[in-house]
Structure formats: structure tokens, C-alpha cells
Amino acid sequence: MQIALCIKQVPDTADIKWTENNTIQREGVESVINPFDTYAIETAVRLKEKIKDVHITVLSMGPPQAQEILKKAISMGVDDGFLVSDRKFAGADTIATSKTLAAAISEKIKDVDLIICGQFATDGDTAQTGPSIAQHLNFPQVTYVKEITGYKDGVLTVKREVEDGVEIVKVQLPAVLCMLKCDYEPRRPLIEGFIKAHNANVKSYSMEDVNLLPEEVGMKGSPTYVSKAFRPEQKQGGEVIVPNDAKEGAKILKEKLEEFKII
Amino acid sequence: MTNQGILIYAEVTREGDLAPVVLELANSAQDLAAKLGGQEVSALVVTNAGDIEHVKSDLKSNGFDKVYIVQDERLAIYSTEFYSKIVIDLINEIKPEIVLIGATTQGRDLAPRISSSLNTGLTADCTSLDINEKGMLAATRPTFGGNLMATILCKNFPQMASVRPKVLKKSTFPIEKDTQFIEIKPEIDNVEKKVELVEFIKNIPSTGKRIDESEIIVAGGKGLKSADGLKLLEELANVLGGAVGASRAAVDAGWADHSIQVGQTGKTVMPKLYIACAISGAIQHTVGMNSSEKIIAINKDPKAPIFQIADIGIVGDVYEIVPELIEMLK
Lengths: 263, 330
Prior knowledge:
The complex is a heterodimer.
Chain A: E1 2-6, E2 9-11, E3 31-33, H1 35-50, E4 55-61, H2 67-75, E5 80-84, H3 94-108, E6 114-118, H4 129-137, E7 141-152, E8 155-162, E9 165-172, E10 175-179, H5 191-199, E11 203-205, E12 224-230, E13 239-241, H6 246-259
Parallel strand pairs in A: 1-4, 1-6, 4-5, 5-11, 6-10, 7-10
Antiparallel strand pairs in A: 2-3, 7-8, 8-9
Helix pairs in contact in A: 2-5, 3-4
Chain B: E1 6-10, H1 20-35, E2 41-47, H2 53-60, E3 66-71, H3 80-94, E4 98-102, H4 105-118, E5 122-126, E6 128-131, E7 137-143, E8 148-154, E9 159-163, E10 180-184, E11 195-202, E12 216-220, H5 227-240, E13 243-246, H6 248-252, E14 273-277, H7 283-286, E15 294-299, E16 312-315, H8 318-329
Parallel strand pairs in B: 1-2, 1-4, 2-3, 3-10, 4-9, 5-9, 12-13, 12-14, 14-15, 15-16
Antiparallel strand pairs in B: 6-7, 7-8
Helix pairs in contact in B: 3-4, 5-8
């Protein structure tokens, strides 16, 4: 089974800083693997441990420094990886991004059976790239996946979390899965993993390499564009009270519940 | 420009009811349609072959000019393949200028397939929709975990946007229109269905209230130190008629299920009241709840960051204060 794992480098949410002009400061901000993608990696590696002949290739569209997250994925047990990187990709929205990733998968990975992505990215949070890749490749998709629970004869059984419960679904491969946070945590790499990642040859492919045209990628290939960005009004905290005892604390809360018209 | 009108995807729930978000979108669509010089607002209902009179009557007094209805027994359970084909077919036929979809699990599964197929833009999880001076849909949404708001325009048609439930308000009064109901046949005979639902296990929340629907959420974090704390919060939630939520730390500790996790790797909620108990308020948590109308925080640590966004903060022990509060409320 050939798995393609799509991951993204995102700024660490806890490390967002503002410039004087109220824009997000991009320089010097800690970058991490999108948290949902770490579960995608773990899920792929677990599948590889469970069934025979699984090969996992990780890919990401991003600037050259996104190599780091590909190496991190390799250190966790992914077989190999490549970057899709080109200045012409700048300003891509989800349509252009998914088109680029779909093209990279078709051009550079032979006979892909399964594509695994994170359900959301914590920066854009659109939840669109996975389903859009599926549409471009005409693959079925399962979103909001918690776990792969079985595999037999080209059919995966997966558990997905929806608003009102849990669904068990069967999907015919090739398919796209979009992962939520799982009930298991992504593993920490072992020393052998670090060595493998260090020695890994992570190639970088350009727009021409993945057989796309300038009008299909980046800002040109994006139907949407940002007309305005602004910092939302920050919620101001109210009073913080240190009550004399629990009774007093509870009384204050009760008064507030009345004031908020809750009771 | 040939594209005209606003189309709303009228999601039907597993129980066969109209999803509440549809009427919220309908109200916003009235405003957009007026700004566009009185364009038509229509809805698309995709459902099984059962009785849908109640869905029709819910749609009726909400300002729709047309309601397209696609009924077929093969559509009893949501299927990405079938449903996306049906929505795409209708869009190609009626060529709306704007398509609105609720950002529910189903909507988020469906919408990107439609936009990619039509090669048009989809602005996800908008918090407000407007028409700009050039008559284009200006969709505003939070990014970077709510740290930045972006207003997004779309160059292609239809311009698509999704909005989370409860962000917009449904109309407080009926908008009567001579709604035309149009039945159409689905063209899905040649669609290969590659995903099959094997089993659905309904989640019955301990308080009987779903976290994404509740107006009151009582949530607990790491500071509770044990699952007993969540039991206590459940009691408070029951008294207040709310739902229980948990921080990631509480979920990872095994005290609560991921389905009630609030925050970056959990759910985003916006209830009328959020009571954060023994939750320190790391940004990974607050991005999921900082749009709540009112926030109450109870925490032992007077320096806990949660107090910076709480409307009222009480420094103290949840295990002492909450039982007192429950007693007073009973």
C-alpha cells in the first residue's frame, strides 16, 4: 500500500506576535507541524506497523524551510518525503494549494492508495484542502476521522466523529482521509529515526516538475483573495475577585448569573 | 454577468429535521439579496423519500422564493458522492451568484468538493457576510486561531461561503413569501458510491445537551486533578440546563471524551455563558471559546490567563465553590 501524507508547517499558535501595524509578525515565530497533521503521521505509521508492504511518502507545499517538518515526519517512521516549493506558489488559496498537492501526488508518487491529511490547519482553519485534493483526483473521502480500525481487500474501515456521535464507515481505496485529534498521541522519534531523517534526501519539486501551469498555481490560480485583514477587538477581562470563603464566592457567582439573565 | 440569486444548501439532520443553521443563513441571505437589488433566494433540500412537510413548513416563512427538493431513498444517509453531484448539478443549472452552506460536519465535508469541482472560491467559517461597493460577496472570517480577521473576496462564480451554526441569527419574525416548491430528480444512477456507513453510535451526553448546541457550557481543566471534578461540573451543568466541556488536558488525562474537548484540537463553541473551572486559559483552549457571550472563570491561581478574558473571575477552589453554588441554585 502506498500512502501519501500531506502535512503543513504552521506558526505556533501560542507564539503569535503582532507588529506595530497590527499585522501578524512572521519573522522569528516558532514553526511547527500543524497539530492535526501529527495525528495523520501517527495514523499512517500505525497502519504501516499493522499491515504488510506499506510505504509512506510525506509531502508538503511550502517554503524551503518546510523541509524541517518533512524530516520530522521521517524521524517518526515515514519512509521518504518531498517538498513542493516554488515562488510561483505564493498567495495560493485552498483551491490552488489542493490542485498543487494533487498534481504532486499524481506526478511523483506511483499508484497512491491512500492519502492522509489533517482535518484542519491551525493557521487557515478552512478544512478544505483534504476534500479538495479528493475532488481533484476523483477519490472518495472520509473526513473527521478518529481512527483506522481495519483493512481488508482494498477496503478500509474507519471511525469518524460527527456532531451527534460516532460513525463506522467502510471506504474503497484509493481514498483520502482527513484526521482529527486521535485517542493516541503522536510518537516521539527514537535515535534511529533522527539518524534516518538526518540522512534522508528530501527533494524539492518546482511547478514545472509537477506539470502545472502558472495560471493554475499561487495567487493566479486562486479564486479567492484577501481584501482586508484586521485585528479583532480583544475581549477585555472584567473583575477578578478573591472571596473570603467559598460561600461568598458562590454568592458572587449567583449574582452574576442573575445579571447575565441565566437564572 | 450571468450568475444571479442566492442558493442556500438546506441541510437535513439525521433525524430528518431542517438543520437550525439553514434559517440563520436564510436571514442573512435576505439582507444580501436586498443589497444586490432584490435577488432571488432559493434553497436546496436533499433527503430521503419520507415525509418532509415539517421541513417545508420550516422553510416557508423564511423568505425563500424557491425551494428545490431532491428526494430519493438512496439519499437517506448523507453521502459525499451523491450529495455533491446533486448540488453541483443544481448550481450548473440555476447558476447562482452566491452559494451559502452551514459549516457543520456535513457542510464541511460537502462544500470543498463543490467549490473544487466548480473551480470557485469557498470562504469557510465566516463570521459575517456582506456585499461590497462592487456588488461582490465580502466574507469575513477568523484566521490564526482568531488572532486575525480577514475579509475575503472571490473572483469566480458562484461565490461560496460557509458559516458556523449559531454565528448568525435567524429572523425573529416570519418573512412570508409565495415560496415555490420545485421537485427535481437526482441524477445519481451512474455515481459510484465508495463510502458505506456501517454503523452509527449516537452519543448521548451525560447532561442530555450537546456541547455545540448548548447555550451554557460548564468546562473543566487540568486543575480539577481527577475525573470527580467533571462529575461535579456535570451537576452544575444539570442545574443550569447546560452541557459539560473539557480542556485538552482533561481529555488527555482520560477524564472526558474528545467529543467534548474545547479548543484548537477540539471544538469551537460560542454559548451565551461559558464557565471555565480550573482551566488556566492557554491560547490553545481560548481559541475555542473566546467568542462566548459571557465568560466566568474559577481558578485557584490569581495569575491564570483565563482571567484576562473572563467577564468575572473568582479566585478559589472549584471543589469548594461549585458545591456551594449548586446548593444555592437548587
